[in-house]
TrEMBL record:
<feature type="transmembrane region" description="Helical">
    <location>
        <begin position="308"/>
        <end position="328"/>
    </location>
</feature>
<feature type="transmembrane region" description="Helical">
    <location>
        <begin position="468"/>
        <end position="487"/>
    </location>
</feature>
<feature type="transmembrane region" description="Helical">
    <location>
        <begin position="285"/>
        <end position="301"/>
    </location>
</feature>
<keyword id="KW-0472">Membrane</keyword>
<feature type="transmembrane region" description="Helical">
    <location>
        <begin position="436"/>
        <end position="456"/>
    </location>
</feature>
<protein>
    <recommendedName>
        <fullName>Glycosyltransferase RgtA/B/C/D-like domain-containing protein</fullName>
    </recommendedName>
</protein>
<feature type="transmembrane region" description="Helical">
    <location>
        <begin position="374"/>
        <end position="396"/>
    </location>
</feature>
<feature type="transmembrane region" description="Helical">
    <location>
        <begin position="78"/>
        <end position="101"/>
    </location>
</feature>
<feature type="transmembrane region" description="Helical">
    <location>
        <begin position="231"/>
        <end position="251"/>
    </location>
</feature>
<feature type="transmembrane region" description="Helical">
    <location>
        <begin position="36"/>
        <end position="57"/>
    </location>
</feature>
<feature type="transmembrane region" description="Helical">
    <location>
        <begin position="263"/>
        <end position="279"/>
    </location>
</feature>
<keyword id="KW-1133">Transmembrane helix</keyword>
<feature type="transmembrane region" description="Helical">
    <location>
        <begin position="499"/>
        <end position="522"/>
    </location>
</feature>
<feature type="transmembrane region" description="Helical">
    <location>
        <begin position="343"/>
        <end position="362"/>
    </location>
</feature>
<feature type="transmembrane region" description="Helical">
    <location>
        <begin position="172"/>
        <end position="197"/>
    </location>
</feature>
<keyword id="KW-0812">Transmembrane</keyword>
<feature type="transmembrane region" description="Helical">
    <location>
        <begin position="534"/>
        <end position="555"/>
    </location>
</feature>
Length: 691
């Protein structure tokens, strides 16, 4: 039996995003580690690697084993072609809309501008760390600081916050189109995430349901929101969902441990690499990978030949990710040590337990849990009880304790604006299931809850083995994330924590349940002499399911999707850079400005930059004299004219090249975000030329 051309094309196209992203990261991350991440070098090794991977790996996707009639995935070839066209149309429409509404977040207030500044540096310079260039300002003058938001000062260098994966991809846009090119890269990555998710739904639910899954994900607010900024979540989503896609294809054929290398082995290695490279993008992916380790143990017990290639690809990706963290982002990991150190210990324990359990069960093989008659039903009931527990959690266990005074103050400020009782230590983590309900509708949450109960029952009965790895990864991530989102709880900010796997998991499981319910109702058609209205029941059920999932999702998304954030920042940044003499050194004399604008001056404008930590006229004059002694023009900068005049004098020739008033995201705690707040950005400068 050969795979129909439509199903083959659908499978190949939806696997391409993960393959391309993995290939790019695999060859360009070493370039960055070696300090050679330049457009020429990346073009010479990166582009051929991506082209070769996209040309060769999809050809290895095998024809599926025959399935029983009526099972998910037996849709005919016409439906596969229709599904592919619809999913592609949804992804393209998503990209177009997000590009049109892309944000211009370059001033660091939260993470997107931090990633943008990381991108600007490596795209322009190709190496890390960032030199402080003290010798071009005032040497080791004790009054100067080089650290700012998302930029850690260590000895005589600066390390940017976060991991390198996302900037390695957004650098492509920077090289092609400067700041604007960089800012519109993430919308394209978000669209590729939608395409990948559609492919996963086509494999696990069936091609005719893939467009619904892709549409719900594309419409939901968090997917649109993170794709309008330079966040890392879209890249992580491609890699982790793509890992599930490639693993599904790799396991479509049974191979033994002793079999010779085949396409199934290559696909398994590609799946493991896709999973592992997620760690190059986000350090918290380490938690999401733990079920993959356990699954490798199950594959070994089942004597499946894909086990070792999957493990090998995973090890390579994780190895690069650990180097990305401890080699290029160590200050960031030090900042996270309170949560990262326990995660590393848990990861080590999971690996050790998997090795021991695999060795202990080696002779007996995979435990035959289906022989325990009560177990499948017990697991299904337990899943429902867990969901009920998350639902009633706010009544029984309100969560407190951020562990950060700054976060406490911010939450208290938002509470005051929202008219809530002021309790700054309130984390709102107990509301996490309701956050999901905000963004995809409570109907989707209900469908997903019923779907996971049914699926777990079937998997324990060994009826749907293709769901084992997806359920292990998705349910583990859903449970741990909902239990402790570990993020400042204002929205839409907190929705970042849900969009990589949690919301896709709910959508996927809800769509599976809708498909199962439709097929169940369609079984009535097998009974003869039924009245005509009965035959319409499956159609009615399907239409209602679509409405239950799509309408609430679209209504919530409408709240903050009608504006662009920080519009005018790109143009203002160009004006600011043009206002600085080529051989100038900038000293920021305003603490309010230093955190957000120093990386912009250093990484985008390319000028040595420092902050005068306790500015006085005497300090300013001394630093300016030091800059002049090096034959360079001195520039003093501040966000307020008064702060600049206080150190430069009343008669100093002030300019304000950066002046932006624009929409910015709101912050809400007990309801979905709507409307927008206002961002005001201002940079005053005074140029003091060398005489």
């Amino acid at each position: 039996m050969r795979m129909p051309p439509g199903r083959l094309l659908l499978a190949r196209v939806t696997a391409l995003p993960a393959i391309a992203v993995s290939a790019w990261l695999l060859v360009t991350f070493p370039l960055l580690a070696l300090g050679a991440f330049t457009p020429v070098a990346a073009g010479i090794v990166g582009v051929p690697a991506v082209v070769a991977a996209c040309a060769l790996v999809p050809r290895l996707i095998p024809e599926p084993a025959p399935r029983r009639p009526g099972a998910a995935g037996t849709d005919d070839d016409v439906w596969s072609v229709v599904a592919l066209v619809l999913v592609l149309a949804i992804a393209v429409a998503f990209a177009v809309v997000q590009i049109a509404y892309h944000a211009e977040a370059l001033v660091i207030r939260r993470d997107p501008a931090s990633y943008a500044m990381y991108t600007a540096w490596i795209a322009e310079n190709g190496y890390l760390p960032i030199p402080q260039q003290r010798d071009l300002i005032a040497g080791d003058d004790a009054a100067l600081s080089y650290q700012s938001l998302a930029q850690y000062q260590r000895d005589d260098v600066i390390w940017p916050q976060f991991m390198a994966g996302a900037p390695l991809l957004t650098s492509i846009g920077y090289w092609l189109g400067g700041l604007t090119g960089m800012l519109v890269t993430t919308p394209v990555l978000g669209a590729l995430g939608v395409l990948t998710f559609g492919g996963l739904a086509a494999r696990l639910v069936g091609p005719r349901w893939a467009p619904l899954a892709a549409l719900v994900l594309a419409v939901c607010l968090p997917q649109q929101w993170v794709s309008r900024f330079t966040y890392s979540e879209p890249v992580t989503q491609i890699l982790l969902l793509g890992g599930l896609v490639l693993a599904y294809d790799a396991l479509a054929r049974r191979t033994a441990l002793t079999d010779r290398w085949s396409g199934a082995h290559t696909l398994a290695a590609a799946a493991g690499l896709s999973f592992g490279l997620g760690l190059v993008v986000r350090i918290d992916v380490l938690r999401d990978l733990l079920p993959v380790v356990g699954f490798v143990g199950l594959l070994l017990l089942a004597r499946r030949g894909q086990a070792l290639p999957l493990l090998g690809g995973l090890a390579v990706g994780v190895g690069l990710g650990l180097y990305a963290g401890f080699g290029l982002s160590r200050p960031y990991l030090e900042y996270l040590e309170d949560s990262l150190d326990p995660l590393l210990l848990i990861s080590g324990a999971v690996v050790a337990v998997t090795v021991v359990a695999t060795a202990a069960l080696w002779r007996s093989g995979v435990p035959r849990v289906e022989r325990v008659r009560w177990l499948p039903t017990a697991v299904a009931v337990l899943a429902l009880l867990v969901m009920v527990g998350f639902a009633i959690r706010p009544l029984l266990w309100p969560d407190y304790g951020h562990g950060s005074d700054f976060t406490d103050h911010w939450v208290a400020y938002v509470q005051e604006r929202e008219g809530l009782p002021v309790e700054g230590s309130r984390t709102y983590y107990d509301m996490s299931l309701y956050w999901v309900g905000w963004y995809v509708g409570l109907g989707t949450v209900l469908f997903a809850s019923l779907g996971v109960a049914l699926l777990l029952r079937r998997v324990v009965q060994r009826r749907d083995p293709q769901w084992v790895l997806p359920l292990m990864v998705l349910l583990w991530t859903v449970a741990t994330t909902l239990l402790r989102p570990a993020i400042t709880p204002d929205h839409p900010w907190a929705s970042r924590r849900l969009i990589v796997l949690v919301i896709p998991a709910f959508v996927l499981l809800a769509v599976w349940f809708a498909a199962w319910l439709t097929r169940y109702c369609a079984a009535i058609d097998d009974v003869r002499d039924r009245p005509a209205p009965v035959h319409a029941i499956p159609v009615v059920v399907a239409v209602l399911a679509v409405g239950v999932m799509v309408v609430p999702t679209a209504v919530t998304a409408n709240g903050v999707m009608g504006y662009r954030q920080d519009v005018g920042t790109v143009e203002a940044t160009h004006r600011l850079c043009d206002a600085l003499p080529p051989d100038s050194s900038v000293v920021v004399v305003d603490s309010d400005m230093a955190g957000g604008y120093m990386p912009l001056l250093r990484n985008v404008c390319g000028v040595p930059t420092a902050q005068l930590t306790d500015p006085t006229p005497a300090d300013a004059q001394r630093v300016v004299a030091q800059i002049h002694s090096r034959g360079r023009d001195a520039v003093l900068a501040a966000s307020r004219a008064e702060a600049l005049q206080a150190v430069a004098g009343e008669g100093a020739p002030l300019e304000r090249p950066f002046d932006v008033t624009a929409a910015m995201d709101p912050s809400t705690l007990m309801e979905p975000p709507t409307g927008h707040w206002t961002f005001r950005g201002s940079v005053w400068v005074v140029v003091i030329p060398v005489e």
